[in-house]
């Protein structure tokens, strides 16, 4: 059902090739041409021609090991598998305090990770260099040639334009206005997908984390400058100008203190983005320090406020809390209580499962989506 | 392009009939069979058969007045038009203080309106009676038979389930749990679409108001219990449980006063839902009363807070302010200032164009959508 009418034989060939390739990729074990003809409804000669083409393109290979009953006839039928190793993808997080990267094959299997520390003062060029070093090291260590990269996904703070340039970013010096996608495309010589970090994180939690199976999800990356990413009907909600979920200013609306003040135990505000100081406050609080405990309470209260505002606006099925807060004991209790109090229909609330890896993992998923769209997309299906 | 392959001739007939009907409805003047054959690409005999069927069904009629050159041949070609009068639709607002209704034909042309006052204490049965009285009067006055109703749209405060029952409504006594859609379906004997009032209002502003041409819109119905409706990519965003935009509790998050308190000039809170008292405060403020002016300032500040939270979460292209605030002089100025201050990408802000009529008009549009879906929908187009 739903195939296109039309007289374009090359389109039809492409569609059929995508169908066969998808079958090969989805199969648990290598398939014979007969298997493929049966499951796709295509004729055996058509399947044979397509598989030859896929083998030539390096996307399919004859399986080395024979599977199943090989003795039924003199010679076993040839079996084919998807060559996930035919291409590779990178997911990269560019954050205020580190650059991290994850490498996978075309099946999304993770081949390795790497990261480098940065500081909130690291300039744009230096930060781009760190991206090059981190990914270069990862490729070398994994013995993967840069030329096999099919796509790179990048998660970054700030508002990102469709072309991958940074519209506005207050967290990274020199980042606003940077043609990030273009710069990295030149480096990697393949498609580069740039996405807001919280948006990447919510994609990751749905792929491999706590939001699996959920289509309506809000994820909050808690920090001194918190951000949120939302899935609506299973799709990223970026907003009209890519600024959806940029909730850093919610704190200010109530005319109350900034998080730097809320978390301070000295009366002096913490330095913005000084996560080490924050970690210290959290550690002190856990150790029973009274002032630090009170500071943490104020911070959690603020987080609850942010999350509640998002929930009232969007009514998601699930709220995922990540960023610093993923490491906070006892953030879920107050959050659930307050949401039950203020929301007419309170959502489920869960901590991030992927933690530190969420942004890079989501960026990898976006790169994979892009490649799968090219390889497997069949119009009308 | 995009027609379905398939062996179902009745489906094909239905598709072709929808195509012809849509052409007739969209035409500025009556069309000949040749006109229709040309614009639809169908054969003339096919068009003729379809038009006969549409005439039998009452959806098309031969046009009385001859149009264009009638002397070219002995007899002018017959011309046909869409019979918008073949069916009627109602849009109904059920609010705390009134029930209002608007009547249209199948082309969405407004034939009349009616309303009845209610109070916030009016019980559910009595309020349903008011719906019957208001719409009965409107139909009688417009000389439209109830049997010609094709669909009724209803906008109501609260969270509405897909089946048209009220999941939760704090504004109308006895409304929570009411099978509103079913009760009205029995009364009107046609499909009844029930929708949250703010959701209806944003649909209306896009149809005939200030949001025409905008796909990403947040509309705030300001009141003692404010609500919001959002369009994302041109579609209503209802949320996972239908509670998106139920921002009544945003006020509470900052631990600040309720609107009843914010608007009070006596130190005693206003009665919840007492809009007369609110109108008086607004009038006093406009007359230069100092206390009332301060009360209004507090109220506007709160409204700005609510809107900013929605904007940060959703990043719409346009914010429409309706409800009471649509009558507030000077609400737009502070709103724009604050949004520019807090939002990384501030949206456009406008007052509702439809004012009091927004909810009923949006409900009418939803009813019209339903009927058009049935009459004109062609799969794959």
UniProtKB/TrEMBL annotation, chains A, B:
Taxonomy, superkingdom: Bacteria
SUPFAM superfamilies per the UniProt record, alphabetical: Actin-like ATPase domain, Winged helix' DNA-binding domain
GO BP annotation list: regulation of DNA-templated transcription
Gene3D superfamilies: 3.30.420.40, Winged helix-like DNA-binding domain superfamily/Winged helix DNA-binding domain (1.10.10.10)
Domain HTH iclR-type as annotated: residue spans: 17-60
InterPro entries: ATPase_NBD (IPR043129), ROK (IPR000600), Tscrpt_reg_IclR_N (IPR005471), WH-like_DNA-bd_sf (IPR036388), WH_DNA-bd_sf (IPR036390)
Pfam families named among the record's database cross-references: HTH_IclR, ROK
GO molecular function (one): DNA binding
PANTHER family named among the record's database cross-references: BIFUNCTIONAL UDP-N-ACETYLGLUCOSAMINE 2-EPIMERASE_N-ACETYLMANNOSAMINE KINASE, ROK (REPRESSOR, ORF, KINASE) FAMILY
Family membership noted in the UniProt record: Belongs to the ROK (NagC/XylR) family.
Protein's name in the database: ROK family protein
Organism from which the protein derives: Streptomyces alkaliterrae
């Amino acid at each position: 059902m739903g195939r296109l009418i039309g007289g374009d034989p090359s389109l039809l060939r492409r569609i059929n090739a995508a169908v066969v390739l998808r079958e090969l990729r989805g199969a648990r074990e290598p398939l014979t041409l007969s298997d493929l003809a049966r499951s796709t409804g295509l004729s055996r000669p058509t399947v044979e021609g397509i598989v030859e083409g896929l083998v030539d393109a390096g996307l399919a290979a004859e399986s080395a090991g024979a599977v199943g009953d090989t003795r039924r006839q003199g010679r076993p039928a040839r079996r084919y598998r998807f060559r996930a190793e035919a291409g590779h993808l990178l997911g990269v997080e560019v954050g205020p305090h580190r650059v991290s990267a994850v490498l996978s094959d075309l099946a999304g299997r993770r081949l390795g990770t790497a990261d480098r520390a940065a500081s909130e003062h690291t300039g744009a060029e230096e930060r781009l260099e760190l991206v090059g070093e981190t990914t270069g090291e990862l490729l070398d260590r994994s013995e993967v040639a840069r030329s096999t990269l099919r796509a790179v996904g990048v998660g970054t703070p700030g508002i990102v334009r469709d072309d991958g340039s940074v519209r506005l970013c207050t967290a990274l010096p020199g980042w606003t206005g940077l043609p990030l996608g273009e710069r990295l495309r030149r480096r990697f010589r393949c498609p580069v997908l740039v996405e807001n970090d919280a948006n990447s994180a919510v994609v990751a939690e749905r792929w491999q984390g706590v939001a699996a199976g959920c289509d309506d999800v809000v994820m909050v990356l808690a920090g001194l400058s918190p951000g949120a990413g939302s899935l609506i009907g299973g799709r990223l909600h970026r907003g009209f100008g890519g600024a959806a979920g940029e909730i850093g200013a919610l704190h200010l609306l109530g005319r109350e203190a900034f998080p730097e003040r809320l978390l301070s135990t000295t009366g002096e505000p913490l330095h913005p983005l000084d996560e080490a100081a924050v970690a210290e406050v959290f550690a002190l609080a856990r150790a029973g320090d009274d002032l630090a405990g009170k500071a943490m309470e104020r911070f959690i209260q603020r987080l609850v406020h942010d999350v509640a505002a998002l929930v009232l606006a969007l009514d998601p099925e699930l709220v995922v809390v990540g960023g610093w807060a993923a490491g906070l004991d006892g953030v879920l209790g107050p959050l659930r209580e307050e949401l039950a109090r203020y929301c007419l229909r309170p959502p489920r609330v869960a901590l991030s499962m992927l933690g530190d890896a969420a942004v890079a993992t989501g960026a990898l998923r976006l790169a994979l989506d892009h490649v799968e769209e090219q390889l497997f997309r069949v119009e009308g299906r």
